[in-house]
């Protein structure tokens, strides 16, 4: 499935345009986070979640009208598969919850309670810290691994690219006011894993080219490595996209999870090609490299010349 073959695209020479475009998108996301904030779900903000299964099809507007009479109009109401409705409210007492259920049943129609979840504000704050720590530890692990396998500048480049992916994804969630829940954090960590996997494939090819290609400008080797792995990157993205799209349209309550994976897939593929590799050039600007076999040959020539020089001195 070689969708692209023998490409010779110039990525490095246009790197500043890509950096600028990414910077603008990240800036818009940060502005949204500052003014709109993130829409934390019950997992982080605390509150009550109810999943109700009605006898007939009930609209979100009907439920919202009933909750509005009880000063709960700000609750998040979502229509799920079949006749199911999910309601997320702030902190309410057990009595308030029972009264709300009785009112919905009397003013709309009977239902079956499928799920009830209650999260206190203390637990919500604790989960926020744990979610942040999960992302930080993932980044630290990646830095250590890539530093050992390649070198620190490769690790630094990949971490900047991953931070780019996470910031853009979270910024889009803020702009669209998508609810941030534990599954969404899991999706973000999945995006981090997917993105670094693509990046390491390119880095691995770059390392091979550094060993065996002739005396070449580093930027040209980066372009060559990206072009050589481009088919693999595109095929991976397309095949991953298929189950994500199925999950988005048919996954019901998992549609937001699939949405984050979809955004992360696009951003992660973009950063692997246009951000991670060109960033290494910025960190190693102007450096020229000789392949390993050329360096070894030069060392042998130098050693032979030194021996000859010593023999001449002795004579």
CATH topology of the largest domain: Multidrug efflux transporter AcrB transmembrane fold
Sheet with most strands: strand arrangement: 3-4-2-5
Contiguous low-pLDDT stretches (5 residues minimum) are: 289-295
Beta-strand share of residues: 5-15%
Give the tally of structural domains: 2
* Class by alpha and beta content: alpha+beta
Distance between the termini: 67 Å
As a percent range, the share of helical residues equals 55-70%
What key attributes describe this structure?
2 domains; 11 helices; 69% helix; Multidrug efflux transporter AcrB transmembrane fold; 4-stranded antiparallel beta sheet; 8 strands; Alpha-Beta Plaits; 315 residues; single chain; alpha+beta; elongated; two-stranded parallel ribbon
Description of the molecule:
- This protein has helices at residues 15-35, 42-45, 60-68, 94-107, 121-149, 152-176, 182-212, 218-228, 230-250, 255-283, 292-314; strands spanning 39-40, 47-54, 76-79, 84-89, 111-119, 179-180, 216-217, 288-289.
- It is α+β, with helices and mostly antiparallel strands.
- 69% of the residues lie in helices and 11% in strands.
- The chain contains eleven helices and eight strands.
- It has two domains: 12-39 and 123-294, Up-down Bundle (Multidrug efflux transporter AcrB transmembrane fold), CATH 1.20.1640; 47-119, Alpha-Beta Plaits, CATH 3.30.70.3400.
Quick overview:
With 315 residues, the protein is of the alpha+beta class. The chain has helices spanning 15-35, 42-45, 60-68, 94-107, 121-149, 152-176, 182-212, 218-228, 230-250, 255-283, 292-314; strands at residues 39-40, 47-54, 76-79, 84-89, 111-119, 179-180, 216-217, 288-289.
